[in-house]
Write a structure and sequence with these properties.
This protein is of the alpha/beta class. The protein is built from 14 helices and 16 strands. The structure holds 6-O-phosphono-beta-D-glucopyranose. 6-O-phosphono-beta-D-glucopyranose binds next to loops.
Length: 483
Amino acid sequence: MQDKIKSFPEGFLWGGATAANQVEGAWDVEGKGPDLADAMVAGSHSEPRKITLNIDESKYFYPSHRGVDHYHHYKEDIALFAEMGFKVYRLSICWSRIFPKGTETEPNEAGLKFYDGIFAELKKYNIEPLVTIYHNEMPLSLVTEINGWADRKCIDYYLRFAKAIFERYKGVVKYWIPFNEINDLTTGVGNWNHGGLLNPGTVDFSHQVDDPDKRYAALHNQFVASAKAVLMGREIDPSFRFGTMICHITVYPLTCHPDDVLLTQQEDQLRNRFSGDVQVKGEYPYYMQRYFERNNIHFTVEDGDLDVIKKGCVDFYTFSYYMTNCITTQKDVAQVSGNIMGGAKNPYLKATEWDWQIDPVGLRYTLNHIYDRYHVPIMITENGIGARDIFEDGKIHDSYRIEYLRRHIEQMRLAIDDGVDLVGYTPWTAIDVVSVSTGEMGKRYGFVYVDCDDKGQGDLKRYRKDSFYWYQKVISSNGGDLE
Ligand code: BG6
């Protein structure tokens, strides 16, 4: 297998990813308002995180308040990314750092200055920024005041934010992702990270309160916001390029029973295809019209919305890929968990400690599936393994991470050989960050280790893991040397 892996296409964008709420910390400095992630208390694999709309640090620990303090370490961190040879760095701009409550008419200059600094550092090392506009960093007051994305007013507040950063960073940022994992709202999990649709205090990942009417209204509002942002962005700078970002949980039928195959197709349409179809093809697909009717789901589509969605299509497709799951009509089969949804256990796959199944071949399958459907350039904007790294005398021997990434990169190369137009790869994560699902630091993904534990203790010193040196070699050989 290894012999067949030649180098990747010239100009391939190797890099890494983070998100502001998981990495920056500095949650209340220089005018930043609290955001949704700042209200999430720490949890674990067995104890779901909760949202407390009244933030009370004397009672709870909120991991995003410190993150890994990238806010004060960004120069050091970007120097490490450059040392690895990054060509691209995916980051998000924290909405509540720029518009603390979301409703202001003028942006917070101190927040913009912080990102000026980040982009200047990236430029110094010739690293292309790839910016996620919304990655769970909704100003908390939009959650408490207007119930988040379920309210159409959110579209205008978001566009004000988008306009401010488009105007400030035109000529600096070319690649934009309007929403991280926009398809989260096809599951109950989307209720929390897309804004305030659950009762505070009772909120957790088992999403016991769910109102599909509001959830799909929120998703529709995001589709409209995305399309309007694309149209506005192109006016501001015609060289801007926009991408969708789908949490792609590829699904296989557990058996070849036609009922399993049909159910798998339906799950795939709903979770993986629907949002990409809207953002790339510019229209609600036929199967969703039926889905809404059969499930008695109603939300408002205003005059002009569908036209805007049609005109504001994105230019490229990006997705996160961590696992695949199986689907079956059978009851009582072994289950595994997952990112936005779990599924039936695949007997041929191993899983991580957090029960996410590892499936490199599934990545080649997925890349072919996506390219066949959309025929636009593709980037994998998240992929990686959450693991408990062991720190030994300043060293972290993360051979499991190297193995995970190597096997996925091999499959990327094979997909390119198949003819897929894969243009970039930003594994999760460039540096250790707080885990979204559990709020732990112990579930680590980075190439760079940060001395910080689940309780926020540690001196935040950065250390290069074995995977850091390995990835450096992968990038310098343009994917030719994966050993
Ligand atoms: C993706 C998110 O869903 O999964 C990231 O975009 C997140 O923000 C990543 O960190 C991994 O999930 P977790 O729960 O292990 O942090």
